[in-house]
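Good morning N.,

You mentioned wanting to compare the apo and holo forms, so I went ahead and generated the holo version with fe (ii) ion. This is what I fed in:
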Amino acid sequence: MKNDIQPHLDKNSIPIDPTLVELQKDEWSYSKKRSLDEFNAKDWELWSEQRNQYFEGQRVKHILRMLECQKDDKAYLYTVNNYYHCMQTATRMLRAGLPEEDVVVGLLHDVGFVTCNETHGEFSAALLRPFISERNYWMLVNHAVFQQYHCYDLLGCDRHARDQFTGHPHFAWTAEFVDKFDQTTINYDEEILPLETFEPMVKRIFARTPNFQNKE
Ligand SMILES: [Fe+2]
Ligand SMILES: [Fe+2]
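and this is what came out, ligand included:
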């Protein structure tokens, strides 16, 4: 009986299904050790090898899933939901001939808008940080403050909050992104490109060598 095996389970616990989660590749091996304390050098070698390959295959899939799972969400006011907003941003940036990195940054700029609304700029900045320029990192972190400039009659909103950054080298880019590609991409009748169009771009950006410099 399962409860004999797991005597700590109370009536509300979900019994553990003793099935191994399938490994991604047939040729890979499990570690069945029950704590990292027990890992020896050989285990860590295998860990490193399989983990690196796993990340290569899974990372972009997970990132796109974060966006794609919002596709059927209801809207709260605008005629589009957050998925279509992000897709419109990326489509417009691509059609404007902006560099691939900018397009990917646009695609993911609000990926955490619903889950961590108050810090969603930092969320996408953290996601992309090792793979993008300081210019785009700074823009992601600060884009919500710059958006306030476009909210004329919003009670309690300081339209000029962005002025604290006057003279900053990335002020102009952040203001331009918000103006052209963010505050105006909320239209149900605007054509978007399919997510598959952006997938190879996302792959290339996340295949870059990680670099954390100059992103404080
Ligand atoms: Fe945003
Ligand atoms: Fe946005």
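The domain at 66-206 is CATH 1.10.3210.10 (Hypothetical protein af1432).

Happy to go through it together on a call whenever suits you.

Best,
F.
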